[in-house]
Amino acid sequence: MFAKTIIHPTREPLGMKFSRSEIHRKTHALPALRFEDQQLTSFSGLVLFHELFDRLGLKKRLRRCFQHQEISTIFGHASIVLLLVVHMLLGYRELRHIRYYQDDPLVRRLLGLSRLPDVATISRNLRELDEKSVERLQQVMRTLVLERIELLALRRITLDFDGSVIGTGRYAEGAAVGFNRKKKGQRSYYPLFCTLAQTGQVLDVLHRSGNVHDSNGAQAFILHCIEQVRSVLPDVIIEVRMDSAFFSDSIVEALDQKGIEYTISVPFERFSALKGQIEKRRRWNRLDGQCDFFETRWKPKSWHYLHRFLFIRRLSKIQHKQPIQLDLFIPYEYGYEFKVVLTNKRLTAAKVVALHNGRGSQEGIFAELKSQNQMDYVPTRTWCGNRVYLLSAVLGHNLGRELQMITRSPSRLTQQKRPALWDFEQLDTLRRRIIQRAGRLIRPQGRLTLSMSANNSVKRELWDYLDVLDQPP
Q1: Residue 422's closest CA among 413, 430, 431, 434?
Q2: Are 161 and 242 in contact (CB under 8 A)?
Q3: DSSP label at 74?
Q4: CA-CA-CA-CA dihedral for 424, 429, 434, 438, to nearest 10
Q5: Residues contacting 404, CB < 8 A, separation 6+
Q6: What backbone torsions phi and psi does residue 69 show, to the nearest 5 degrees?
Q7: d(CA 232, CA 236)
Q8: Which one of 60, 162, 190, 445 has the fewest CB atoms closer than 10 angstroms to its CB?
Q9: C-alpha closest to that of 359 among 217, 243, 228, 218
Q10: How many CB atoms lie within 10 A of CB 235?
């Protein structure tokens, strides 16, 4: 609980005019530098996450993840993982960057430590983690997201599945050379993510080597994520959106048996008959000002049942630059680009296309995870250590979204493209506005107090958050 001790600065009357001499001043000398051991913090906004961690019981959950392992260091695995989460929230990347805030009193107070571990201790601790610890940590991440959607009691939940390349410039256990659009030949991991469209959070991650296909282990992972959601909301309608890498008879049949609604992109390269259907088509139905469509009941020869296929062509002035060999499979007509979507939904074609195109929001989540949560950094040479770092980055992202969902009301209802129900601010915006605020820990009359500059905007926003976080869940 934080008491509202507010000292207002002297305020000038609104609209008062000042002379030039009262505004400008001459600079005669540069100040001398002096470094002293004071209770100064650069991250006063961490008090919000201190409250959030207590509200979620995060420290206790993390400690339970590592109860089966003997603690070989003074700090313990739970403290190291929590430090990594805070490391992401502060915006630092490499482990060695911890030295730049190791003396920050608010960081140490948040972690419950008198001093922070050095880089060697963190690396050694990550190296000692086993598969059971990682699985329990992953379960904590899933549980936090499931608790949120259980509180929301949504009638419909949309799950997006896709992989993202995480490159490493050095050897790391399990990393391999695979398809990398930007850095060909680089060793990498290729984890598969399940994201929740309504909250913009990552529900689960399947860590994989970089040389596997998108569909490697995908079916079991997809069904597991669905079962996790249904364990807290048995009657919820679940939608799944996927790209062409997950198009297979077994996945489609499994989703149909589970009663899951889906939209899946169809790969032209695997079914030459699709190109023939498009080229023979003479009459297209208008979808909107840019797109036309037609639909049919069709199935590949090896499949058992007919399914609903939507064929879409879109006006496009982008030059066709695909390899010439693909012209044997991919339809080409100047001024148009084509795609096919498989679905079992009974919506109109326009609504199905809008829903399927909405899965592009997942790319925004990946971009934020890599640019602001340092998910694309590989810190150790061990498989489990790198998995824990990845999970810490995802957990930091989810906690940033959780903080905003607790303290704000949804800004929209369910829409065709299934955007997030909140207008989320990115973590980097929260850092600049709230977290990275200078302050001093003082004890007037023996009471611990965090003193900050009296910026009205920051003060108002901080108290708005704290007023809600102080309320019981």
Answers
A1: 413
A2: yes
A3: S
A4: 170
A5: 422, 424, 425
A6: -100, 140
A7: 9
A8: 445
A9: 243
A10: 6
Angle at which helices 131-152 and 218-232 pack, to 10 degrees? 50
Q: What is the pTM of this model?
A: 0.89
Rounded CA separation 330/278 (Å): 10
Q: State the DSSP string of 371-386.
A: HHS-TT----SSHHHH
When pLDDT is cut at 50, 70 and 90, the band that residue 26 belongs to is confident
Q: d(Cα 316, Cα 392) in Å, to the nearest integer?
A: 41
pLDDT band at 213 (very low <50, low <70, confident <90, very high): confident
What token pair was written down for 128? 């000692």
Structure tokens belonging to residue 50: 């201190």
Q: Which two tokens stand for residue 349?
A: 């074609």
Strand partners, 333: 336
Neighbouring CB atoms inside 10 A of 318's CB total: 7
pLDDT in tens, 245-277: 999 999 999 999 999 999 999 998 888 888 888
CB neighbour list of residue 365: distance below 8 Å, 6 or more residues apart:
193, 195, 200, 202, 397
Q: 189 with 174: CB under 8 angstroms? A: yes
Q: 404, 456, 439: which is closest to 7 by C-alpha?
A: 456
What pLDDT, in 10s, does the model give residues 35-62? 667 788 999 999 999 999 999 999 999 9
SS3 123: helix
- pLDDT number for residue 9: 46
Element (H, E) at 323: none
Helix, strand, coil percentages for the chain (3-state, nearest 5): 40, 15, 40
CA distance 435 to 427: 10
- How far apart CA 329 and CA 269 sit, in angstroms, is 5
DSSP string covering 400-442 = HHHHHHHHS--S----TT---SS-PPPHHHHIIIIIS--EEEE
Query: In this structure, what token pair is assigned to residue 457?
Result: 């905007």
Nearest to 288 by CA among 345, 362, 357, 198: 357
Among 34, 46, 32, smallest CA distance to 104 is for 46
Alpha helices in 326-382 (DSSP H): 349-357, 361-372
> What is d(CA 50, CA 89) in angstroms, rounded to the nearest whole number?
12
Q: What is the DSSP string of 39-62?
A: -EES-TTHHHHHHHHHHHTHHHHH
| Pair 400, 89: CB distance under 8 Å | yes
